[in-house]
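Amino Acid Chain and Its Fold in Token Form
===========================================
Purpose: to set a sequence beside its fold so the mapping can be learned.
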Amino acid sequence: MDYHTLVSLYDAHSDAVSELEHACERFNQAVIDMHSYNISLIGTAGQLREFIDKLECCYKSIIEFQDSKEKELKVK
């Protein structure tokens, strides 16, 4: 292939190459965004787990309190 043929091919396909480059850039950005989103979800899941643990402790305390009140009433 001579130089002019290569230039003609490049000119004919430069728009497609440019679009492909932009598509790759958008894809890479989407991967970065998805990674950030996953990290955020992991953090949120951890916070949710902590909240559930605290609710379980509260629930156990309420049950223990109710049990102790019932025992007091039975003794009286």
User: Anything to note?
Assistant: The chain is about 95% helix and 0% strand. The chain has a mean pLDDT of 88.
